[in-house]
């Protein structure tokens, strides 16, 4: 067993450890492999104190000298630059100790895998007393199986075997089988059972799967004994012939052959009266043995060859019925030929065996006479006939029940309900809570029409019953925080009482409606109180004049503001805490006060608010900076300008941050210089797409770089893919800064959204780009001619990245100090729960008002609650699929790092950022050694929160004017709801009343109208008082109604259409073109009159009232501008032409150069030995001037 353990090493060892629940990091695998600790035997015997010290000494003094430089990072990770300082940190030591325990556990399992010795047991009567010590030892080896469980398994096996043997083998009726049972080391059992047949000393091994013993081979062994006995005893005629022949042969032969047969157990039963062994006749013996086993035929053939000479021609004697003596002088060849006859072939023997087997079988014709007698008796005896009929009728249900398949849980519920209400009159049916929940589930999922069909054909509750059940549930009141409902939501699903709150707003139809449940007018913007909370009940519908005054003094809400709680459990459902209408005019101080109030109220209910998230809104971002960034940096960490542990941490949605970076890159009027030679530009992507590369290599389209499509996340994901950045560096000259910018876009999102990353990798990933942005921002501020507004990413995006980097460390330290390591789930710290809620709502109906949104949220909660109550009775395929997906993609439990590990990860990130900056010439190499970029986000005071400004918002974000509104009355994608249909019918009835005079007024005036009544009194068409519904009055007072476009792409795109992209025109010789395109190589006249070569990256108008008006979205521009034009400029990467070689030009200021200075378009240069070669000279270009 030790040898087998020694052989378990390398990938096999890591696989066994992973199956046992331990995941070993890649660098630790390499270290153990290099030090020869990567096998099961040595690893299970490791001493973590002394052996880890020797490994650490080897890593510090020896290994880095023999490793190539390219492999050093894999082994040393954070210590790659200083391997002599390598040491095992706290997390590594703990991980190695866990690995040793798992290795010992696996070793024990391998030792316990074969609980019985390989030697065979010689005794026939094996009892528990004899094997008890062995069983006890084996039971001790298996820690997870108790002795009582082994005893129970033993009794079950012995009872099963004894019942079978007594029922099927009458000769063994008095025999009792006793077994030895032990654990096999894998929480299962194995046993040895002796054969109950006398003179059989064989002990059979019996195994067991999860639930039952596998005894088929054991039973087959017992049956083999009785098939041989039966065949030998039944053929008495052959026995007599054998006896007669043996008596004749005994006169002429010695007794040597008899002594040989005494030791043959197969022939021990064939003894005569005088006790001598008898040799069986070949013909009978071969028939009998064929029936039992084909292998016996081969044994008999061998025996025949050995004893052929002494057998002689006794078969001929049998066939001729002669009793003459067998002579021994017959020819040997004649005897051999005798056995080759067709009579002894396998097919003939098979035929004779089947004939002999059928001799004792009953035939169906044997029962004809019995049936005839029974038929006569039944016809003559009426009482006997009745008894037979009664007996058969009683037996039939038992037979049919056994053949009936098992019904599903839903069918059983419906069947039980149908039986209960079968004899009741219509309207008198009664339904239990399970049936009502099932009916409500079908009503919500299928809608009214489907439920009406089900109700008429299946035993479902009526529509009115389901509606009463739904209306009894608690309504969602606008502006009311549902904290107690959230606690019940978490407790019902056994979720931890720790949540992450996200806030966001979505556009709703500006429709004001009456809510009869609360007697409120819903759709206006609710005022805020001193705590920043919406004041509920601000618009009670008391009278017609009051409702009319609301419409004069207030405007309908354009947005619905939601606060959603996300539990800290992967794939757990979210919960809408509050929803209310807003006009987007609240301030940052309102957000801050609301957060403090929510933390206090949640804490009183026992719920801990760990953090807040948003999507870049300036008010929420201000509040996050106020709660995160402090005046004085940490005394230990100068680069960290926040408290390590805060009351809550704030996170900006990483997906929205990536979208902001994408929009900045694609904005035509923005120049993003990165050093004196490099520019971050979308023109490099245009050149990559237009080059003769297969689309399967980069997966990009021109629509992906459309600057008007701002919220296309899939386009952003494709743009910053590793394949794209690698192709840019290989195929597009001068695109280093653009490729680095795309890497930043990808990793800023992955640091939070990736499930596989470890905490230290996340910290290093995001802080690397924080340091790079600090260096880049400092360079822009120090370079004359550049400013942050036009030559850097937006302040909103930069501040979001800084806040997220600080929040990452705060989350690690918070959960680590609270010992809640399993709650560190960064992909849940975002505003995506809000986005998911909005997508779910719009899947039901694209355009909805604020009141309809509240009703949909209530339906979602009701549907989720019904599924929760019925999950043990009804199968939900999507729910099971989500569980399976969650199990397949579950994250690996992590051990959160200590402070010194965080310091090393941040130091590694700083070194990488400085290396990026040096390569792009943002820093000089002699200045990079001690350079420490500090946070450049200004801390905010309480007074700053009271200022309402929009300086932190950018026009690349999606604003209300970018959302297309559609006033058409028909929307094919809108799902009609029964509430909307009934409301429309009520309005038509009321309009008829108002316009038809006083005849119908008498009917409506019978209603007792109070302030809480759904009716109000107005004047009809003749000036007479009339009662109409409050919902109708709201409809009459509204000036118009808007619907949101059903096309999601239109809702998030700007209104003007993007320019169509054209393929770059390749020229083989210099030529003057009417149009030039992005990625063209052109010659321009420089300010000193010389020729400058530029590769076009983008275009912009030279004049305009603001940056937005200077944007030029097309990918091509005319060289000759029309009259009164604003002028066009080109953003280029500039080169000098020196003897057909292009050299990059250091530019003091990167900007748009007037297209009037265009000379001609030159052929695309070729890359030869890391230098660009142009096929034309300066003299050739000057001919076009």
From TrEMBL:
User: Locations of Basic and acidic residues compositional bias?
Assistant: 301-311
Chain positions covered by the region annotation Disordered: 108-147, 246-279, 291-319
Q: Where is the composition biased (Polar residues)?
A: 114-137, 268-277
Entry superkingdom: Eukaryota
PANTHER family assigned to the protein according to its UniProt record, in alphabetical order: MYND-TYPE DOMAIN-CONTAINING PROTEIN, PTHR33173
Q: What is this protein called?
A: MYND-type zinc finger protein samB
């Amino acid at each position: 067993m030790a040898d087998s353990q020694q052989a378990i090493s390398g990938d096999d060892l890591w696989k066994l450890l992973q199956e046992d629940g331990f995941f070993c990091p890649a660098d630790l695998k390499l270290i153990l492999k290099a030090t020869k600790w990567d096998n099961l035997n040595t690893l299970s015997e490791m001493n973590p104190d002394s052996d880890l010290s020797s490994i650490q000494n080897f890593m510090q003094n020896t290994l880095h000298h023999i490793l190539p430089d390219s492999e050093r990072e894999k082994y040393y990770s954070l210590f790659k630059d200083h391997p002599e300082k390598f040491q095992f940190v706290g997390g590594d030591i703990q991980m190695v100790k866990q690995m040793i325990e798992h290795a010992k556990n696996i070793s024990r399992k391998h030792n316990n895998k074969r609980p019985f010795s390989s030697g065979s047991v010689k005794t026939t009567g094996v009892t528990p007393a004899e094997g008890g010590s062995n069983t006890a030892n084996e039971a001790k080896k298996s820690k997870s199986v108790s002795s009582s469980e082994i005893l129970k398994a033993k009794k079950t096996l012995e009872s099963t075997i004894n019942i079978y043997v007594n029922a099927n083998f009458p000769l063994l009726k008095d025999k009792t089988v006793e077994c030895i049972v032990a654990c096999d080391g894998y929480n299962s059992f194995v046993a040895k059972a002796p054969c109950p047949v006398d003179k059989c000393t064989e002990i059979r091994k019996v195994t067991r799967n999860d639930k039952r013993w596998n005894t088929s081979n054991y039973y087959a062994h017992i049956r083999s004994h009785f098939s041989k006995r039966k065949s030998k005893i039944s053929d008495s005629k052959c026995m007599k012939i054998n006896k007669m022949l043996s008596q004749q042969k005994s006169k002429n032969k010695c007794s040597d052959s008899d002594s040989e047969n005494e030791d043959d157990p197969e022939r021990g039963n064939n003894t005569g009266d005088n006790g001598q062994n008898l040799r069986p006749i070949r013909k009978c013996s071969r028939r009998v043995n064929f029936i039992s086993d084909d292998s016996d035929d081969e044994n008999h053939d061998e025996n025949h060859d050995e004893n052929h000479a002494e057998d002689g021609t006794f078969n001929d004697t049998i066939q001729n019925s002669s009793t003459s003596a067998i002579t021994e002088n017959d020819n040997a060849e004649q005897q051999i030929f005798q056995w080759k006859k067709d009579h002894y072939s396998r097919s003939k023997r098979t035929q004779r065996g089947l004939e002999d087997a059928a001799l004792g079988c009953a035939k169906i014709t044997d029962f004809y006479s019995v049936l005839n007698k029974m038929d006569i008796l039944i016809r003559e005896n009426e009482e006997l006939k009745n008894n037979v009929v009664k007996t058969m009728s009683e037996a039939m249900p038992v037979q049919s029940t056994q053949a009936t398949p098992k019904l599903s849980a839903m069918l059983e519920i419906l069947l039980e309900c149908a039986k209960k209400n079968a004899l009741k009159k219509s309207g008198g049916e009664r339904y239990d809570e399970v049936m009502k929940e099932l009916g409500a589930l079908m009503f919500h999922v299928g809608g009214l029409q489907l439920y009406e069909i089900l109700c008429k054909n299946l035993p479902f509750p009526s529509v009115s019953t389901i509606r009463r059940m739904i209306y009894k549930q608690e309504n969602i009141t606008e502006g009311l925080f549902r904290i107690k409902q959230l606690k019940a939501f978490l407790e019902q699903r056994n979720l931890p009482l720790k949540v992450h709150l996200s806030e966001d707003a979505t556009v709703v139809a500006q429709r004001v409606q009456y809510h009869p449940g609360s007697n409120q007018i819903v759709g206006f913007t609710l005022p805020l109180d001193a705590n920043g909370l919406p004041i509920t009940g601000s618009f009670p519908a008391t009278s017609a004049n009051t409702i009319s005054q609301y419409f004069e003094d207030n405007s309908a809400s354009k947005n619905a503001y939601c606060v959603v709680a996300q539990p800290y459990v992967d794939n757990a459902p979210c919960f809408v805490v509050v929803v209310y209408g807003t006009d987007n005019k609240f301030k940052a101080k309102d957000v801050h006060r609301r957060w403090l109030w929510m933390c206090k109220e949640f804490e009183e209910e026992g719920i801990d608010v760990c953090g807040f998230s948003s999507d870049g809104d300036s008010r929420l971002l201000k509040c996050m900076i106020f709660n995160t960034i402090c005046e004085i940096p940490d005394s230990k960490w100068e680069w960290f300008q926040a408290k390590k542990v805060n009351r809550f941490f704030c996170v900006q949605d990483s997906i929205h941050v990536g979208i902001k970076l994408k929009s900045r890159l694609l904005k035509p009027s923005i120049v993003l210089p990165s050093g004196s030679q490099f520019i971050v530009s979308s023109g490099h992507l245009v050149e990559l797409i237009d080059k003769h590369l297969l689309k399967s290599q980069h997966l990009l389209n021109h629509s992906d770089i459309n600057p008007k499509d701002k919220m296309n996340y899939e386009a952003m994901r494709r743009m910053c893919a590793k394949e794209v950045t690698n192709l840019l560096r290989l195929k597009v000259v001068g695109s280093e800064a653009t490729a680095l910018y795309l890497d930043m876009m990808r990793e800023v999102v992955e640091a939070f959204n990736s499930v596989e990353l470890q905490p230290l990798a996340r910290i290093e990933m995001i802080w690397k780009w924080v340091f790079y942005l600090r260096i880049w921002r400092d360079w822009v501020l120090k370079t004359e001619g550049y400013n942050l507004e036009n030559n850097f990413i937006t302040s909103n995006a930069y501040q979001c990245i800084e806040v997220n980097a600080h929040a990452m460390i705060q989350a690690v330290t918070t959960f680590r100090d609270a010992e809640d390591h399993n709650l560190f789930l960064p992909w849940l710290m975002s505003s995506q729960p809000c986005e998911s809620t909005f997508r779910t709502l719009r899947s039901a109906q694209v355009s909805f008002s604020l009141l309809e949104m509240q009703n949909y949220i209530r339906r979602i909660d009701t549907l989720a609650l019904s599924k929760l109550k019925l999950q043990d009775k009804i199968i939900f395929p999507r729910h099971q699929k989500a569980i399976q997906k969650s199990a397949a993609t579950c994250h690996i439990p992590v051990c959160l790092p200590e402070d010194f590990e965080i310091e090393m990860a941040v130091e590694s990130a700083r070194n990488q950022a400085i290396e990026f900056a040096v390569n792009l010439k943002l820093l000089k190499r002699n200045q990079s050694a001690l350079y420490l970029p500090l946070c450049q986000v200004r801390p905010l005071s309480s007074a700053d929160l009271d200022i309402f400004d929009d300086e932190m918002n950018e026009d690349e974000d999606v604003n209300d004017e970018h959302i297309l509104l559609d006033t058409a009355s028909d929307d094919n994608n809108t799902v009609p709801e029964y509430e909307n249909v009934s409301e429309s019918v009520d309005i038509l009835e009321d309009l008829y009343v108002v316009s038809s005079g006083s005849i119908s007024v008498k009917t409506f005036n019978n209603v007792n109208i109070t302030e809480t009544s759904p009716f109000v009194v107005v004047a009809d068409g003749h000036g007479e008082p009339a009662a109409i519904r409050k919902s109708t009055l709201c409809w009459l007072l509204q000036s118009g109604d808007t619907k949101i476009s059903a096309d999601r792409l239109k809702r998030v795109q700007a209104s003007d259409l993007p320019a169509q992209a054209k393929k770059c025109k390749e020229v083989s010789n210099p030529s003057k073109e009417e149009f030039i395109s992005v990625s063209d190589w052109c010659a321009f006249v420089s300010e000193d009159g010389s020729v400058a070569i530029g590769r076009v990256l983008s275009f912009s108008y030279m004049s305009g009232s603001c940056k937005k008006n200077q944007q030029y979205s097309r990918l091509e521009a005319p060289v000759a501008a029309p009259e009164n034009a604003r002028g066009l400029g080109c953003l280029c990467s500039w080169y000098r032409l020196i003897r057909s070689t292009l050299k990059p030009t250091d530019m003091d200021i990167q900007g748009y150069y007037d297209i009037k200075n265009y000379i001609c378009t030159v052929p695309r240069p070729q890359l030869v030995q890391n230098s660009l070669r142009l096929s034309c000279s300066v003299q050739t270009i000057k001919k076009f001037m």
